[in-house]
Amino acid sequence: MIAGSLFRGKVTKSGLNRTIDFSFFLFLVSLYLLCIFGTAWIGDDAYITLRTVDNFLHGYGLRWNTTERVQAFTHPLWLFLLILSNGISGEEYFSTITLSIIVSLAALVVFLYNAKNLRARVVGLLVLSFSAAYMDYSTSGLENPLTHLILILFFARYIQKDKSDRRFLILSGLAGLAALNRLDTILFYIPALLIEFWKSRNLKAIADGLIGFTPLLAWHIFAFFYYGSTPPNTAYAKLNTGLGLWQLLPHGICYLFNSLVYDTVTPLIILAGVFAGWRLSGCFRAIATGIFMYLCYTVSIGGDFMSGRFLAAPLLLSVFVLSQFKWEKTARYYLYLIMIIASTFFSGPAHNLSWIYQQNATPETRQLMGIVDERRYYLKQGSLLSRLKNNLSELKVADYAEQATHLQQPIVYKAIGYFGFLAGPSVHVIDPLALADPFLSRLPVRQDVPFRVGHYLRLVPDEYITAVESGGDNFKDARLKKFYEGIKLKTQAELFSSARLKYLLRKLVRGQETPPEQEYFMYPIHLKLKLAECKKGRLISAAGVEILLPENASFSEFSAEFGANDTYRVDFFNATGGIATEIIHPVALDAAGTLRREVKVEQRGSLPLDHILIIPLEGDGHYEIAGCEIKS
Description:
By secondary structure, this protein is an alpha+beta fold. It is built from 28 helices and 11 strands.
């Protein structure tokens, strides 16, 4: 019709508007594709799962460290897809990127198909293309793309007015798959499922619900038998922290505020989608309520250290709600487009076209309260454009991983993704953040050092490192020894051993293990020494050493000899608290002896420094300091 009008030289106002809208739509589809390929990346956390995938494909089972069974992933359904794609291709990086892009494009197609009209599609494409949160986590190697696809499939079906006998079965099945992909996303679906169930309230609805959630139930049964625990180990590491709600709430609120500052379009559209949903009919109110519940949950757990990761799904669902408007009023429609574009560019470097000029730069990635622009943090090793030029073997972490393979002993290391994958199945990595460690994840978080959300440091007992290395259990504390033996039994014993099965049955009735001496692990007792006592070399435990300084000490430099193959955190304190922190990195993981390091110290205020706290973070578990000095 439009083409015919143009051929005859007659162009109606509505025809011209449709032509403009369609041209803009094609432009935005191209922009979306450009952004998703330009921002494609895989982060360190994805490589935690990829190590499990690699071990499985090489016959070690669903294990992270090959000596123990630990569910070091949060997304079983995504794991299965990664096993399939990596198994077919024989490599991990490009197959994971390809899988992520295919699933993300499938979610986009379903969204565009179910949008009300062309203008609604234009609005949706514009928002998704310019949202840093959505674009960053359309790839990344994490489960977000599959979360997005299942969300759109579910709610596209949910808003239809069909009265099929299979409606609740299909909805329950999709919600069950979503929970199997990532359990906490079930919050999006609960209001809709409750409304649908309430409409029937019969035995068939109950049966359909049970059938729909059968895959999730089957996985939990398998996980309890295989891993000895139904929740993933990552849940224990991040939620079993010993931190109170009031300690986490400020971080959760900051997570939303951080997005408002660095990715303005994302929280604004989420807000618009929630309010629009509450103003529309019942099914859209259920969607808005699900978004709100998920946001409340996100705030309650302190948000995340990855900027925008937990806001990508709420954004997509909010855009889906807004796509159900027809956007017939031209002035309001164009005003909305201008607002989206303006909010994107006012939010600074977070917009997605920044990949064009940042491939060879080192962008600022740290944002508020420890939140990080994770994609840009791993730009050089993780982005598709960088990996087309380089590979992981050229990175410093690859050197560390290669050195670890020569040591023939456990290694304590925090950023376990790239490192663990590159180190291979022969290296046992002890993760002090506990994501992949079944013993440490049950311990409360250290509160003698500041925490970042998602990075909850545990005290690694010296006896634990020895136990992993030798296979013994020489714990001095009898209760801690018993606790460790239980963990070891369920994660390392033969699957069908009678002792293990009895232990699992006992835990099924009585509940999971609780470690003794919670207070000790939260507030470890530091070895206290005077500065003069730190001249000679001495071994220190993972609890750390507190160096007491002379009264009214005034200095500009602190130097000491540190274990050359370890990582240390050095904190400087005055009477008001910590004023400076320095991280001492290893020369090499296979280096021997100690190496002198100097730390510049800037005096703040009139109060003198009174002590220095040195805490080992990573290494071989044999930590050493010597020759501590201060210089004016």
